[in-house]
Design goal:
CATH class of the largest domain: Alpha Beta
Order of helices and strands: HHEHHEHHEHHEHHEHHH
Number of domains: 2
Helix content: 40-55%
CATH architecture of the largest domain: 3-Layer(aba) Sandwich
CATH topology of the largest domain: Rossmann fold
Radius of gyration: 18 Å
Largest sheet: 5 strands, parallel
Number of strands: 5
Structural class: alpha/beta
Length: 245
Amino acid sequence: MNRRNALISTGLFPLSMSIWRQAEEMAINIPEGLKILFQGDSITDAGRNRGSYYANDGWGMGNGYVSFAVKQLLGTMPEKGLKCYNRGISGHKVHQLANRWEDDCLNLRPDVMSILIGVNDYWHTLTHGYTGDLKTYRTDLDALLKRTKDELPDMKLIILEPFVLKKGTAIKESDWLPMFDEFRMASKDLAQNFGAEFVPYQSMFDAALSKADTAYWCPDGVHPSMAGAHLMAQGWLEAFSRLNF
């Protein structure tokens, strides 16, 4: 088997026709003009230009998983007229999302909302004097999701699991684990409670560590590299493909 075929067989280098075929299958049930909103903290923000806030603006997508996912959607389903927005803001916790929710979610009236939040709700208790705890995180996120579904009952929801790679340069394992695992479990529980698709990023990264180390995927343990962002986008796209419209 030559190198190209080896990459294809491992799924690391899919054939272009396979990509189009997968996109065609995914697009069957996707309505035209679908609005997709990405929400979260710095992992979602990923250095986006916040002045570039219109749908599908490349500068406004940042350079993380959102950009990877949106490029795949727009490039393979041009006939659908999808409208994608990134409203992640670096450093935010759930209560800060709630403070800007009217403008950055409800007024956009998304058909699909993707949310990745939680790492700062724990991290900032270690570094920023934040006094919230697991109960705060769970209660705040539950209230935010309920508020959203009450206003937009037909909206589809994707909840992304907050994650940490314990050998990251910004992580002291004894400070994070096993405490942060409870935040991850809370996000999964809420996904089940709200009938959301759930993306298990922790297990995805843990599996990826068999191929390359933390420095390759997520150097500081929290913010993914380009490779990590690509991995995240693939997990997001799989969850998106499972939505029923």
